[in-house]
Amino acid sequence: MTSYPDVSRETFRLRMLIFDTRYRSLTIQVVALIAFMLLVAWIVSNTVQNLADLGKPIDFGFLTGAAQYDINQTLIEYTNRDSHLRAAFVGLLNTLLVAALGCTLATVLGVIIGVLRLSRNWLVARLMTVYVELFRNVPVLLWIVFFMAILIETLPPPNAFRGENATASMLLGDSVALTNRGFYIPEPLFSRSLGDISVFGAFDISLDLIAFLAVLAAGLWASARIRARADRIQNQTGLRPTTWYLRLGVVAVPVLIVLVALGFHLGYPELKGFNFRGGIYMRNSLIALWLALSFYTAAFIAEIVRGGILAISKGQTEAAAALGLRPNRIMSLVILPQALRVIIPPLISQYLNLTKNSSLAIAVGYMDITGTLGGITMGQTGRELECVLLMMAFYLAISLVISTAMNWYDARVRLVER
Amino acid sequence: MKKSVILGALTVAACAAGAAGAATLDDVKARGKLNCGTNTGLVGFAAPDANGDWQGFDVAVCRAVAAAVLGDSSAVEFVPTTGKTRFTALASGEIDMLVRNTTWTFSRDVDLKFTFVGVNYYDGQGFMVPKALGVSSAKELDGATVCIQTGTTTELNLADFFRVNNITYEPVPIETNEQAQQQYLAGACDVYTTDASGLAATRATFEDPTAHVVLPEIISKEPLGPLVRHGDDEWADIVRWTLNALIAAEEYGVTSANIDELAAAPTTNPEINRLLGTEGGLGEMLGLPADWAVKAIKAGGNYGELFEKYIGQNTPIGLARGLNAQWTDGGLMYAPPFR
């Protein structure tokens, strides 16, 4: 006969919290949690108390006061009479602009370099290795300053374009000017503009842009439908109908009609007074920051792409080759789609890194949120803690949005497993 | 329950201990060094020389305070600060005092909780342009690109000036004077604006200073002076009266050349006697030795000597005394009585 210990009769005693292994780990966790929360509470109350003693209790009222300073690059209307909050918003948009530009260029460069690094061409592969090692082993701040120095010291100032015997000239039929203050490029203008609509009274969005994007999106959607149909026919009959002119047509024709209807033309930059006027002015700070962040992050992305490609077994390439696919098609149809599953998770953190690294913008005087809210506003109002807390909240929010979006994409390309 | 009460009490006690700051004077004495915030590099006001020793008009105030408090003008740890970092450095206690061409304004004094102890240079904001630009007035600068140190009052004055005159400009925010200089010389900005003294100091370091002009407009009042944190009036008094001692010394004709003689025995002028500690007990009232002012003045000389040595007419910077002359000479330098 086997005897079982009678569990139900054992009564719970307090000392069991420590001596009974079933409860001990729970006890330790609870004590650690309480200790941690007390520590946090102590730090917070200490900070609040000290600030109050200094006569600077935490107060976000300063955000509604007039900012009084000017910002050079503003994506929305802004004057120095506007509030600190709006100045912070202008900075936030500048951060988002450089992050979006940077992530795009870094991805394009990174994929190209990552693929080329695996090239069988000895010279190309070695050059890409040099690129990767050079860019990822030097701090990004130095690259930012370096790119800025190159722009400032090598390009001509605007007044070199002036006069009869000008030492510099504009490029591409007098439409683009590269100066040491930045690049001036033609801007799209509409002579029969639809005007702007105001969003929450905070900023305006051009209706022309919305119309253009809407028509473009509709065209792309139609093009995708045509492609799906071609796929279907190919699956059924084995013959793929020629559709490229149809697909080009449904995208290009409506877009051209909209552009003509709106009276699209280009506004060219012209030298007037001290600077070029007209056109889109890409400041040297934006370009330096954009290029430095992109080139730096591209080195990491290249390694991620290379790792992703190497993770796909060689058998896949060989099988695809056996089916008669050419190397380019093997890469785009077989290898890259599978490699994406490996590539995307680390790619997310590279996007986050790039966005956070953009806070180094002040090194070249780019007015991102660190330059406006965390720089001038903080200096003028002396609200260090409030400004830093707000900036942390902004960066946290941006990062969470980026990771959510990328995780959604990752879930889409993930292999469907049963 | 009992435990949480004890922990709560500990928390409160820790808060109280954290809030009650020790006196700055005691801290400085215990450390044996004065932490003084200065410019990152503005020739004439604060810049390291060839040997790495900090030299300049602002630096001299730090040295005078160190001499008065510690008896050694070299017992200073210079902390270079930018326009952006200076106030945080002072508020956080990283530095004991700040002498960095800092303008005394209402909001800095009242809202940022600092105490400005006086003015060591009366300045105003000016504009510098290359002569080749052919500009003779700041009002002709419509559309110009302007380099400006970010986080300064000049940034706000500039915005006001261009708005009032209804002209536009393109601000290029820059962190330090050296970066501004680089961009200005490369032509990445047409104009450099900062305090007129700063412009003179910057121009003096150019290869060809004569190719640049400072425009006649002075668009603001910029009283520059040393400042300390709110809440330690004893320390503020020490810095204030050290600066006043340097100014008064010039007024009374006390120089680094004759100070040993004057301090050896009481003279016929009671003001000098009180200043140099041969009469009365002013040093004691400050919590310093009786000869505090003697040491402060010997550190580099009186106000006039410092001015001539670092930024005066015979230096590359070549500033005239102007507003910074003694009140007896029609200037604004006026030390309250030592009594």
From TrEMBL, chain A:
One Gene Ontology term, aspect cellular component: ATP-binding cassette (ABC) transporter complex
GO biological process: amino acid transport
Presence of the UniProt keyword Ion transport in the record: no
Domain ABC transmembrane type-1 per the UniProt entry, residue ranges: 92-406
TM region positions: 23-44, 87-113, 134-152, 197-223, 244-267, 287-309, 358-376, 388-409
Pfam families xref list: BPD_transp_1
Domain of life where this protein originates: Bacteria
Chief localization: membrane
Keyword Transmembrane helix attributed: yes
Keywords, in A-Z order: Amino-acid transport, Cell membrane, Membrane, Transmembrane, Transmembrane helix, Transport
Localization per Swiss-Prot or TrEMBL: Cell inner membrane; Cell membrane
Membrane topology classification: Multi-pass membrane protein
GO molecular function terms attached to this record: transmembrane transporter activity
Family membership noted in the UniProt record: Belongs to the binding-protein-dependent transport system permease family. HisMQ subfamily.
Name listed for the protein in its UniProt record: L-glutamine ABC transporter membrane protein /L-glutamate ABC transporter membrane protein /L-aspartate ABC transporter membrane protein /L-asparagine ABC transporter membrane protein
Organism for this UniProt entry: Rhodovulum kholense
From TrEMBL, chain B:
Stretch forming the signal peptide: 1-22
Statement: the UniProt record of this protein carries the keyword Signal: yes
Gene3D superfamilies: Periplasmic binding protein-like II (3.40.190.10)
Keyword Transport: yes
UniProt entry keywords in alphabetical sequence: Signal, Transport
Domain Solute-binding protein family 3/N-terminal: start-end pairs: 33-262
InterPro entries: Bact_solute-bind_prot3, Solute-binding_3/MltF_N
Superkingdom, natural source: Bacteria
GO BP: amino acid transport
Family: Belongs to the bacterial solute-binding protein 3 family.
Protein name: L-glutamine-binding protein /L-glutamate-binding protein /L-aspartate-binding protein /L-asparagine-binding protein
Protein's organism: Rhodovulum kholense
